[in-house]
Specification:
four-stranded antiparallel β-sheet, 17 helices, about 35% helix, five-stranded mixed β-sheet, single chain, Aspartate Aminotransferase, domain 1, 13 strands, Aspartate Aminotransferase, domain 2, 3 domains, alpha/beta
Length: about 425
């Protein structure tokens, strides 16, 4: 009888996995797991499986431009490993505010008196309500008392802030008189009214909502969570009229002009920047938010501040259509998408005879402009290729339905077209 072979030592097995690029301590853990499982030959596969759990660049071929699971707005931001003036005032040589520079830029962009930033929009809403309404009441339309994903529920945010929610109107119809009636109740101490953009759903039919301009006639501050981060409804950075799919999407400039005392919105949606929450509006109310203890807990770091500063300067320099990846995707003409799709089909037809170009509908995504689409062009191939595309060196994330795989060109950066071709050829082997 032949004696069973002894497994290699943990250290030797770990060193044999060096080509994976993972740190040695991780490889030691993986080697130990494989040996303990009695399958040391699985160590390489285990290392690859671990590597693919790390944050990995991918090609977004889903047609969802702001894909929440893929980081929302694609953002390129690089900076040297150098000290920067996060909280240092060069003119005085003393400690400064990390909110000063970026706050001024976003106040200018929104047409507001003052602005500040926190780490996401849920945090922005939480901070505003806590700073302005702790221990007091906040009227909110029943139709806007929503959950917007990630368990962000308006009633719970208000509860966490220490304020009390006052339901106003009905699910489908809320008028300014409903707010006025709630504010006038003797048992209500309204610190503000909160208007919430539902973001990821839409009620149609017998509906009515109260505009910011109407709410501004009330005798309490109006806070509008406009959510998606559209800076200006006129989209002056795009040629021609604003895209039809943006109709009805609230925008910062118009919300402030209509009388909102404060607005909050996301940085990584229609703005096209990093994950952040922006608060803009009346200087005294922003100052209250800055002074609240939560402001320190929710503040962004230097990397986010630098990326936001770059984003704001890009808007002010009117370079949005070329330098903000989201708006570059939006502005791409159908003819350009068609040409790219045809080139991809020609290159992969040897491996996929069913490959063809089809018209598709892309989505803004991330709860922006719910229920609307924009025309696009895709490459469609018979069969479900999602898994082999995900397993490519640079994973390609596509969509599959009715045993057909679709890759939408509007969400794919042109520099990634060759990666798509290579991934499809590999998937056809």
């Amino acid at each position: 009888m032949t004696a069973p072979s002894r497994p290699p030592s943990v250290d030797k097995l770990a060193r044999s996995l060096k080509a994976s690029g993972l740190p040695h301590p991780i490889l030691v853990d993986i080697a130990r797991e494989a040996i303990d499982a009695g399958d040391h030959e699985s160590a390489a596969a285990r290392a690859e499986q671990f590597r693919r759990t790390l944050l990995t660049p991918v090609v977004n071929a889903t047609g969802v431009l702001l894909h929440t699971n893929l980081g929302r707005a694609p953002l390129a931001h690089q900076q040297a490993a150098a000290a920067q003036t996060v909280e240092f005032d060069l003119s005085t040589g003393q400690r400064g505010s990390r909110q000063a520079a970026v706050g001024k830029l976003f106040a200018r962009l929104c047409g507001a008196e003052k602005a500040m930033v926190v780490n996401n929009n849920a945090a922005a809403v939480l901070l505003v309500v806590a700073a302005l309404a702790e221990g007091r009441d906040v009227p909110v339309s029943r139709g806007e008392s929503v959950e917007i994903g990630g368990s962000f529920r308006v009633p719970e945010v208000i509860e966490q802030s220490g304020a009390r929610l006052v339901d106003v109107g009905t699910t489908n119809r809320t008028r300014v008189a409903d707010y006025a009636k709630a504010i006038a109740r003797p048992d209500v101490d309204a610190a503000m009214v909160l208007k919430v953009h539902p973001s990821n759903y839409r009620v149609e039919g017998f509906v009515e909502e109260t505009s910011i301009a109407d709410l501004a006639t009330l005798n309490v501050p109006v806070v509008a969570d406009i959510g998606s981060g559209l800076v200006d409804a006129t989209c002056p950075w795009l040629p021609g009229a604003p895209p039809a799919w943006l109709a009805g999407e609230p925008a910062a400039v118009q919300a402030i002009a209509d009388g909102a005392d404060l607005i909050t919105f996301s940085g990584d949606k229609l703005l096209g920047g990093p994950q952040a929450g922006i608060i803009a509006g009346r200087a005294d109310l922003v100052e209250q938010c800055l002074r609240h203890p939560l402001a320190r807990a929710l503040r962004p770091g230097g990397l986010v501040l630098a990326a936001l500063q770059t984003t704001a300067l890009t808007y002010l320099d009117k370079r949005v259509a070329t330098d903000i990846a989201f708006w570059r995707m939006v502005a791409t003409p159908i003819a350009a998408l068609q040409t790219r799709a045809e080139s991809i089909v020609d290159a992969v037809r040897v491996a996929h005879p069913s490959a063809r170009v089809e018209s598709t509908e892309a989505l803004p995504g991330a709860g922006s402009a719910p229920g609307v689409t924009m025309p696009s062009v895709g490459v469609v191939i018979d069969g479900d290729l999602l898994k082999p595309l995900r397993q490519f060196a640079t994973p390609v994330i596509a969509r599959s339905r009715d045993d057909r795989t679709s890759l939408d060109l509007r969400s794919i950066d042109p520099v990634d077209d060759q990666r798509v071709i290579d991934a499809l050829l590999a998937a056809g082997r």
